[in-house]
């Protein structure tokens, strides 16, 4: 006889109002990591800060909040309505046996009020709290250290220029847990020991690790590791991390500094020092000087996740190792007599090499998370690189300018890599359209973009 699935319980998720497109993939990925699946009681209003979710257990809800940087708090939802009357009726219909454990005479509690897009006076807040006197609270109010915290949450819509008198939605629930928003400040790049011109913002770094479903004891790899910002977020979640980069100076922390008012990097500015700064050095495997277009790894499924930000040529053109036949004039000298011959590395080749590597070296179910630069006037979903071993999970846009953006692509390995998959993308017509984006850098800096910017400025007058 099959066991019945656990009954779903209603929870209210309060989300941060930034990186809006990234929130749903993060929550979906984290719920699957906790052993559940995304299930909403209502159609999700993607831009809204309030989502009602169905989650099997409070333990799973807490597990979600131990990871998310997109959500602020989660509540066990006791009532919901489009007016005060609807909210009170919903609360009166909530099973009393589910309330009673938190309303006992020997317990303490307090009630908070949170309003979105409107500020209430203290008198208005007290009035709303007093209106809940019909709830069977038997405990004592304790404002400093209560055992149970309850919240009234009111949604006044998304338009700050048209705020309604009464809220569009009202919610009441028991607070369960807060998210990990404090990580954004504690891991801020401004406080980091070793940074570069392209070090990833801390919030986005944690979002990428969550999209990749990084978990303790995973092995996470970044083939364009730079200063190692993406390794830090994965290590924070208990994964062992490693990476490669073609730039010898960056890997070894040598040469000119990226920090303002600092000319040269110090003797201990390196990736290992970054992880040591956060008490994560034990998770650091190594970082190697290597060319991502020439894999150095033995064949096989080596990594649980590949999380990376490939170079797309805004600050400088992408490079790979050249051949011996290339002109000696092209040879660049690095510190300590290290030489390499730079050769052009087209964007299309970077991303297809990356997908092929992920298809071969990820474990089954492992995820590839990477940034894809886009020239928006020419963007269609068809130009996203594909591979038969990888399934597209999510595709989120972050604007760079009115005409350019980058998209965070998350893919999951769903098929074992075979020799016939080696160059499968060449058989696919979608490879050719993406090659048009090899000129992304030129388009980014072109006179066309300046003209677009001027036209937009004129339109705003």
Automatic annotation (TrEMBL):
SUPFAM superfamilies xrefs: S-adenosyl-L-methionine-dependent methyltransferases
Subcellular location(s) per record: Cytoplasm
EC number(s) from the headed UniProt entry: 2.1.1.214
Domain tRNA (guanine(10)-N(2))-methyltransferase TRMT11 N-terminal: 10-181
Primary localisation category: cytoplasm
UniProt keyword terms in alphabetical order: Cytoplasm, Methyltransferase, RNA-binding, S-adenosyl-L-methionine, Transferase, tRNA processing, tRNA-binding
Catalytic activity line of the entry: guanosine(10) in tRNA + S-adenosyl-L-methionine = N(2)-methylguanosine(10) in tRNA + S-adenosyl-L-homocysteine + H(+)
Signal peptide range: none
Gene: Trmt11
GO molecular function terms listed in the Swiss-Prot or TrEMBL record: tRNA (guanine(10)-N2)-methyltransferase activity; tRNA binding
Protein name: tRNA (guanine(10)-N(2))-methyltransferase TRMT11
GO process annotations (BP): methylation; tRNA processing
Record's keyword annotation contains Cell division: no
Main function: Catalytic subunit of the TRMT11-TRM112 methyltransferase complex, that specifically mediates the S-adenosyl-L-methionine-dependent N(2)-methylation of guanosine nucleotide at position 10 (m2G10) in tRNAs. This is one of the major tRNA (guanine-N(2))-methyltransferases.
Keyword Ribonucleoprotein: no
């Amino acid at each position: 006889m099959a066991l019945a699935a656990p009954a779903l319980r209603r929870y209210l998720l309060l989300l941060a109002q930034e990186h809006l497109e990234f929130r749903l993939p993060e929550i979906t990925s984290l719920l699957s990591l906790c052993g559940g699946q995304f299930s909403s009681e209502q159609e999700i209003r993607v831009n809204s800060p309030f989502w009602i979710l169905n989650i099997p257990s409070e333990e799973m809800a807490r597990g979600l909040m131990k990871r998310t940087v997109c959500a602020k708090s989660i509540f066990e939802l006791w009532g919901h309505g489009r007016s005060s009357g609807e909210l009170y009726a919903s609360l009166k219909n909530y099973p009393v046996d589910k309330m009673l454990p938190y309303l006992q005479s020997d317990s303490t509690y307090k009630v908070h009020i949170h309003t979105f897009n409107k500020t209430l006076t203290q008198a208005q807040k007290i009035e709303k709290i007093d209106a809940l006197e019909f709830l069977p609270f038997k405990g004592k109010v304790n404002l400093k250290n209560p055992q149970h915290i309850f919240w009234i949450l009111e949604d006044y819509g998304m338009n700050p220029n048209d705020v309604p008198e009464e809220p569009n939605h009202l919610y009441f629930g028991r607070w369960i847990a807060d998210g990990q928003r404090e990580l954004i400040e504690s891991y801020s790049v401004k406080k980091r020991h070793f940074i570069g011109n392209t070090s990833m913002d801390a919030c986005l770094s944690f979002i990428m690790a969550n999209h990749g479903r990084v978990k303790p004891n995973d092995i996470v790899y970044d083939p364009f590791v730079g200063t190692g910002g993406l390794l830090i977020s994965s290590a924070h979640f208990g994964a062992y991390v490693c990476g490669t980069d073609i730039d010898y100076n960056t890997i070894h922390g040598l040469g000119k500094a990226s920090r303002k008012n600092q000319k040269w990097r110090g003797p201990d500015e390196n990736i290992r020092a970054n992880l040591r700064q956060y008490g994560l050095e034990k998770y650091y495997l190594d970082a190697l000087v290597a060319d991502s277009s020439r894999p150095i790894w033995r064949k096989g499924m080596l990594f649980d996740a590949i999380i990376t930000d490939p170079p797309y040529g805004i600050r400088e053109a992408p490079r790979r190792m050249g051949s011996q036949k290339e002109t000696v004039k092209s040879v660049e000298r690095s510190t300590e007599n290290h030489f390499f011959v730079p050769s052009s590395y087209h964007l299309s080749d970077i991303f297809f090499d990356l997908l092929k590597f992920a298809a071969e070296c990820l474990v089954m179910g492992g995820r590839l998370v990477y940034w894809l630069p886009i020239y928006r006037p020419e963007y269609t979903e068809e130009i996203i690189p594909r591979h038969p071993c990888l399934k597209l999970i999510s595709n989120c846009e972050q604007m760079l300018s009115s005409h350019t953006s980058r998209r965070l692509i998350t893919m999951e390995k769903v098929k074992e890599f075979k020799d016939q998959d080696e160059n499968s993308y060449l058989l696919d017509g979608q490879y050719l359209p993406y090659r048009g984006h090899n000129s992304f850098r030129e388009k980014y800096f072109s006179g066309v973009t300046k003209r677009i910017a001027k036209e937009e400025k004129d339109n705003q007058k």
